[in-house]
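Form P-L/3: holo structure prediction, ligand flavin-adenine dinucleotide.
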Amino acid sequence: MPKEEHYDYVVIGIGSIGSMALWQLSKLAASGKKILGIEQYGQVHPHGGYAGESRLFRVAVKEGGELVPLAQRAREMWLELNAISGRDVFLPIGALSIGPKGTVPIEATLSSIKEWNLEHDYFEPEELRERFPQFEVEDNMVGILDLNGGGIRPEVAVAVASDAAVELGAELRTHTRVDSINVETDENGAERVRIATQDGDVLAAHVIITTGSWAKELLPEFESKISITPITLTWMMPRNIAQFSPEKLPVFLYDTDLSSGSHFHVYGAPSLDGYTVKISHGHERKPVGSVAELNKVVSEETLDEFSINASGVVPDFYESCPRYSVHHDGFTENGKPIIDRLKDKPITVAVGMSGTGMKFAPIYGQIVAELAISGDSSVRPKAFGVEREVLNQNV
Ligand SMILES: Cc1cc2nc3c(=O)[nH]c(=O)nc-3n(C[C@H](O)[C@H](O)[C@H](O)COP(=O)(O)OP(=O)(O)OC[C@H]3O[C@@H](n4cnc5c(N)ncnc54)[C@H](O)[C@@H]3O)c2cc1C
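OUTPUT (holo model):
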């Protein structure tokens, strides 16, 4: 029988949240604790909810409330990651919201800014056209630049956060799929978790599950709590690429009503590849049963229709889409992640990031580490608990 390995903390799933949890655990756990990260694919891979080149970061999140101080702390941590890695993981270029005055996305952003007194610039239509000539701006549209927003390079983030953890003494085991976890009692009566992998079992005093869209596979009791939702990213090609560099263009969100009467929401980032600009909208988001069932093909018809509408937003775009990819994330019913310690079990979970996990990843990593180490986290919103029906009433 192969020798069983013992660890104090094992993080399963080293994607957006897992890489940050591993980094934070390595910083916060008492010295001498043995920490392991297990990832089914490589240290960086194209299959996770984090893939796709860029993510948007905003401090002035539309939801406001407790999420704003979390975003502010996350920003400091992103800058720390930039500093320790020497890489542009976080691009502090601002986040621009454009939309008709008086509509929900604009008013919600303004109310979050007002509530927390956030640094921003506000543009009436004329000023907006002058400052950001890339966009079609109608006379009823205004712009808000969240000065502390920016872009995130997600693949780089996962790589450097897990590097930072290893640097601090954690071990990282890639290409190792966890098949099951079981809580058992050791010879001294203490609880521990047996983690079964194809390379043998690992024993942990505490396990952290950050398996994203795969959450239900290790947590069958979460079957009804998480739905796996496809998200398509699209990129368009401008004629004048110089106007779309990170020096000229922040990350952006743009809302408009089309002549057909339907609402068109897009979000995007400046050119990071030197020839395209990310500009995406929801497309169809019908949940799938498992990541393996994800259809990665978008029809020509959908792409053509999108290209026409996107060229209406940015007139410099060629009217066809040269690049797209289909990704996924685990969504909870109310859009709030589940970050909690499971009752009476040495297991902490951080799943159901619901399409917004990347911007908060470092602070969620810190919360996970605190929960695993002490059972409590002073910064975790109560609404993130597993028992949401009960807890939501107290938010
Ligand atoms: C297209 C798209 C655009 C988005 N845009 C934004 C944005 O602009 N801003 C923002 O803040 N958020 C955004 N999000 C959301 C954000 O990217 C996700 O919420 C976040 O990446 C999810 O992180 P995660 O750690 O839960 O999952 P993942 O990053 O997918 O990590 C899970 C990891 O667990 C591993 N794993 C799973 N099962 C096992 C197993 N059994 N054994 C070992 N390893 C396992 C997986 O391989 C994976 O590496 C977007 C998401 C998508 C898909």
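COMMENT: The longest helix spans residues 67-85.
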